[in-house]
Amino acid sequence: MESVRLADTKNWIILIFVFLFVLDCFVWSEIVFNGKNKNPEIYFLNVGQGDSELIVLPNNVKVLIDGGPANNKILENISDVFSHFDRRIDLIVMSHPQLDHFGGLIDVLKRYSVGVFIWSGIENNTASFAELEKTIKENKISQIVLREGDKIKYQGDYLEIIYPPKNLSGVKNLNDAALVLKFTSKSATALFTADIGKKIEDYLVKRYDLKSDVLKVGHHGSKYSSAKEFLAEVSPKISIIEVGKNSYGHPTKEVLARLADIGSKIFRTDKDGIVKLTFDNGQIKIFSQR
Predict the structure, then answer these.
(1) What φ, ψ does residue 287 adopt, rounded to 5°?
(2) Which CATH superfamily is domain 35-288 in?
(3) pLDDT band for position 35 (50/70/90)?
(4) Residues in Cβ contact with 164 at an 8 Å cutoff, skipping those fewer than 6 apart
(5) Phi and psi (nearest 5°) for 40?
(6) How many CB atoms are located within 10 Å of the residue 77 CB?
(7) Is residue 222 classed as helix, strand or coil in its secondary structure?
(8) Where are the beta strands (DSSP E) in 75-155?
(9) 136-167 pLDDT, tens digit each
(10) Tens digit of pLDDT for each residue in 98-109?
């Protein structure tokens, strides 16, 4: 009987050590990979044929821009990026109400605590958009409509909305009403162009200093976006194309050639997975899953 008890005791000791070892590894992983960041980070999420970007400002303040299509990939991506205990997203920005940009936001709004939902005020008469609106109301999430000239500031970093104009009316193409945002920190700048085409690019070239270190390439690399003149003005060191399997030919050879001509380093979520950029002392560090 004593030998049996001794064996049981040894088993319990082993189990306790295994538990403590696993717990220790988990705690350290939380500290190393999910501790509070001192500098801005941008994640270009791999959501398939759609757009979703996550800006993490100092002290883990999170801004999610779009959520890709309704395919659950956004939740998988966020689980890869966030701590297991982190269920807070401070701001969600919807660039425009097309399903490949807002579909995944419905699940995010149901799963996470969201501070404020930001959009342009342009609606879409679809069942999916109605579900999005219903989810926002059911979860009592505050909504703010922003347009050209508005800014979102946190400490020394800010997001400037440079399109669409406040007097926008009678829009027929939702892509031409998408929010375009320029992110500025003390270390770098990034331009988020949603699905805008050449017409809107020309508008922006005439009105703004578009030069940016990072470009979220417009409309998944469509040949009708990223015109030569626009790219020359932005002159990005790094260009990210968010794209998945599609029948549109995205990204097109024309856009890839134009980006190569300006010497921009190209990353694609369909080939590189989640692309993470960190900004620190004027330097941009790039990480990808592949």
Answers:
(1) -130, 140
(2) Ribonuclease Z/Hydroxyacylglutathione hydrolase-like (3.60.15.10)
(3) low
(4) 120, 122, 147, 148, 171, 176, 177, 178, 179, 180
(5) -65, 145
(6) 23
(7) coil
(8) 88-93, 113-119, 142-145, 151-154
(9) 999 999 999 999 999 999 999 999 999 999 98
(10) 999 999 999 999
